[in-house]
Design a protein that fits this description.
The complex is a heterodimer of chains A (500) and B (112). Chain A contains 19 helices and two strands. Chain A has helices at residues 7-18, 27-52, 77-97, 108-124, 128-146, 152-183, 188-197, 203-220, 230-236, 239-262, 276-295, 300-319, 324-353, 371-386, 392-404, 410-436, 453-471, 473-487, 490-498, and strands at residues 58-61, 72-75. Chain A has a two-stranded antiparallel ribbon with strand order 1-2. Chain B has one domain (2-50, 66-100). Chain B is mainly α. Chain B is 64% helix and 0% strand. The chains are: A mainly alpha (500), B mainly alpha (112). At the A-B interface, helix 5 and helix 6 of A face helix 2 and helix 3 of B.
Chain lengths: 500, 112
């Protein structure tokens, strides 16, 4: 029994319960509690990363009900690294939000902490229905965070987002219900055992419900053809919220990866390798459409939304190889791209504030007041996002290409990844040169306002994270290799959870 | 009994989907509610329909005369969550209607 596992869920929930006591009165105190909670969550996540780095798996039976009767939390390499990532991004997004975003309405910190609790819970739980519950927690928080501080743009995006996700939740329940009807269990490890023992007569039912489940996760992960909601939602949200949302899509990726290796993996009998024929082609098409969308965007924030879609496509294409190297490279790229996209959303917000009335539109605007500082940061972020050496984007893409080289459909991976890298470079250079070089002078009598040190701190912090991530690529790839090997060995997970 | 429940769920889903595809927020919210009802009913019967049987196992009881309690617990959770979500989307639609001045889903009227 390892009580550490519950901490990344418990700390933010406790903070979210305490903060409303001071709502509307003492913003400094709210910020203090929220920041303490985020720091604690991050350290709990990093501690779990250290625990999991040994290659062991830890379980925590809630209420001491043994699996499969009670709900278990499971910590393996994948969960640990994603919880740690959530902690890091959450902290920097919060630091940015404390520069003024959280003053624009009540309860920002409550929603923010609940969002983190939901995300960490989804990464840790080993029970399918519990996953649904954590999905709902993180979604309800995300609905509120999306429309936070109001405005017509956010309401429009909010209505679409909420309706789409309510339909998704309904489908999730249908899929879980059918799977329970067929297998008689909700524990993921137990379900993996039961699915592998099913007779041929259950094939249609279990395959249909499995694919329905994947559709729901694909909606969260914005995979083709369910990605249309994302650019509008992410570009409408306030900057720190959008930065936190860059983790949100990874919940979908995580759920796809977890279920397709554990429950519907190679040893799943009638449902074996269910997703293998679809995942890589769909993901590669998502990658192409993501960059085409980024190329055609008229606004910087919308372009970032499409870049998220493209990065999701790339990581899922790599995971879709279902080899150790492929999944390992996919996880590496996932960690890299989440940090980069969070960084980009914060940075673009700083840039847009100094461009006068055009805001983030890709037209000629004012010369940014702190152009050189912002320009250098933007240059660094673009190098990471487009996958140029020396930063981790390049290493990630290289690992993915290496993983694909001896695979039957590796040609498509090489062709599409290389061509989209070129498109990425063109799109990002166009945006960068328009924002920083082709500008008008600020008209006399107007002022654009300067970003404070506190504004720059989270942006620089995230860039330092990327630099560290690049410098420690060796240990990180060792860790992702270990994680991928764990994922492709479902019996390891099953033995650890069920104890037999 | 199975046919009755199955067709009831089917009709609810059909009506729900039809309403969700409307362009105004109120029918869509109603459609989502109907869809949620259908899902809840479906969850409720997924452990087979057992009539007049207790969900608690007792000494010397036949398994056939036992209703699976887990779907009942799940559907309770699903109802609570579904209710909260319906309340939220209702408030959000009213908020959108007041701020945007239209109940069209896209937040603006489409003129032909």
């Amino acid at each position: 029994m390892n009580h550490w596992l519950i901490f990344p869920i418990l700390i933010p929930i406790l903070a979210a319960l305490v903060i409303p006591l001071f709502a509307g009165k003492d913003l400094a105190l709210q910020r203090g509690i929220s920041l303490t909670a985020s720091l604690a969550t991050m350290f709990a996540g990093l501690w779990m990363l250290r625990l999991a780095a040994g290659g062991e798996m830890f379980t925590y039976a809630l209420g001491n009900w043994p699996a499969p009767f009670g709900i278990v939390l499971v910590l393996d390499g994948l969960s640990a690294v994603l919880v740690a990532l959530t902690g890091v991004i959450g902290l920097f997004a919060l630091l940015y939000a404390m520069q003024g975003t959280d003053e624009k309405g009540p309860f920002f910190h409550v929603l923010f902490q609940m969002q983190i609790a939901g995300i960490c819970g989804a990464f840790l739980t080993g029970d399918l229905f519990n996953l649904f519950v954590f999905f709902e927690i993180l979604l309800l928080a995300s609905y509120n965070l999306l429309v936070f501080s109001g405005g017509e743009k956010r309401l429009r995006a909010g209505v679409h987002y909420v309706i789409l996700n309510l339909i998704g939740s309904g489908l999730f329940l249908l899929a879980v219900g059918t799977l329970y009807g067929v297998t008689g269990t909700l524990n993921m490890a137990h379900m993996a055992v039961r699915v592998s023992e099913l007779g041929a007569s259950e094939t249609a039912l279990v395959q249909a419900s499995a694919l329905l489940l994947i559709v729901v996760f694909a909606l969260k992960a914005a995979m083709l053809p369910l990605y249309l909601w994302l650019p509008n939602v992410y570009s409408s949200a306030t900057a720190p919220v959008a930065a936190l949302f860059s983790v949100l899509t990874k919940v979908g990726v995580y759920a796809i990866l977890r279920t397709s290796t554990l429950i519907f993996g190679a040893e799943a009998g009638v449902a074996a390798d269910l997703l293998k024929p679809y995942l890589m082609p769909l993901a590669l098409l998502t990658l192409v459409l993501g960059w085409i969308g980024a190329m055609g965007s008229h606004k910087l924030r919308k372009m970032l939304g499409y870049m998220i879609i493209a990065s999701l496509g790339l990581m899922m294409a790599s995971m879709g190889l279902f080899t150790t190297a492929g999944i390992s490279a996919g996880i590496y790229y996932m960690l890299h791209s989440t940090v980069v996209m969070a960084l980009m959303f914060l940075l673009v917000d700083l840039i847009a504030r100094q461009r006068g009335p055009v805001d983030d539109a890709l037209v000629v605007g004012w010369t940014p007041t702190q152009g050189s500082m912002l320009g250098v940061l933007f240059f660094g972020a673009v190098i990471a996002a487009a996958g140029l050496p020396p930063l981790s984007g390049f290493i990630g893409k290289m690992l993915i290409l290496q993983a694909a080289i001896d695979q039957p459909n590796g040609f498509w991976m090489w062709a599409i990844v290389l061509i989209t890298s070129l498109i990425a470079l063109v799109a990002l250079s166009r945006a960068g040169s328009l924002v920083f070089f082709k500008t008008d002078d600020v008209p006399p009598g107007e002022s654009a306002g300067r970003a404070s040190l506190g504004d720059f701190l989270p942006v620089v912090g995230l860039l330092v994270c990327i630099a560290l991530f690049t410098a420690y690529s060796g240990p990180v790839t060792e860790f992702t290799n270990m994680t991928a090997a764990q994922l492709l060995e479902p019996s390891f997970y099953i033995t650890n959870v069920l104890g037999r | 009994m199975e046919a009755l429940v199955a067709s009831a769920i089917g009709v609810l889903v059909a009506c729900g989907v039809y309403l969700i595809l409307r362009a105004r927020t109120f029918p869509v919210v109603l459609g989502l509610a109907l869809f949620a009802y259908a899902v809840n009913l479906y969850l409720f019967v997924m452990g087979n329909i057992t009539l007049g049987a207790p969900p608690v196992l007792q000494e010397g009881m036949e398994i056939a005369a036992y209703a699976d309690p887990l779907p009942q617990a799940l559907v309770l959770t699903a109802i609570v969550i579904g209710f909260a979500m319906t309340a939220f989307i209702l408030v959000l639609s009213i908020c959108a209607y007041v701020s945007l001045g239209t109940d069209h889903l896209d937040g603006r009227e489409h003129t032909q």
